[in-house]
Amino acid sequence: MIDLLKDIVFWHWWILAIALVILETVAPGVIFLWLGLGAGVTGLILAIQPTLGWEIQFVIFAVLSVISGVGGRIWISRRPLNTDEPNLNQRGAQYVGRVFTLADPIVNGVGKVKVGDSIWRVSGEDMPGGVQVTVIDIEGATLQVIKVDTPT
Q: In this structure, are 47 and 69 located in the same domain?
């Protein structure tokens, strides 16, 4: 096994980098991209300095992978994606500000409201069923609601 590690050359790292980037396209999360970047740069360093031992190569790969992963997270967090649907994957957040009719009364702070073809748990002050409520917040899978003020 050690003899095989002694024979690692730069193109081995580049093949690993390509394989990791391809794996990134089919695996969830963004981890293999940064590992692939670390492997690619390790291959570049090895192409420039081909006498590095395999131990040093693996240390370089590990350090570069951590640096690229942390750097990538920082870079992505500072450049949020602009989208016309920012709550697309936050279904409950899409309902904040909307008005619904209580399907079940709110008793002891908990009730239900029908939203489209689904029923959502709601919390708020006790009130009878059939009352119009406005969603003011979401906590987990529970919509926080208040009674809609009707003009008198």
A: yes
Residue 64, in any domain of the structure: yes
Q: pTM of the entire structure? A: 0.56
Assess whether 17 and 70 both reside in one domain. Answer: yes
Number of domains in the chain: 2
pLDDT score, position 105: 92
Q: Is residue 6 situated within a structural domain?
A: yes
Neighbour-count burial of 106, counting CB atoms closer than 10 A to its CB (0-12 exposed, 13-18 middle, 19+ buried): buried
What is the reported pLDDT for 2? 66
Q: Model confidence over 42-76: pLDDT tens digits? A: 999 999 999 998 899 999 999 999 999 999 999 88
Render pLDDT for 87-105 as a digit per residue (tens, 0 to 9).
Answer: 666 777 788 889 999 999 9
Q: What is the CATH number of the domain that holds 123?
A: 2.40.50.140
Q: Please provide residue 7's backbone torsions phi and psi, each rounded to the nearest 5 degrees.
A: -95, 10
Residues forming a β-bridge with 104: 112
- Joined tokens for residue 140: 């987990």
Backbone torsion region of residue 72, taken as left when φ is above 0, otherwise alpha when ψ lies between -120 and 50, otherwise beta: alpha
Beta bridge partners of 118: 115
- Cβ atoms 53, 31 nearer than 8 A: no
Residue 18's domain comprises 2-78
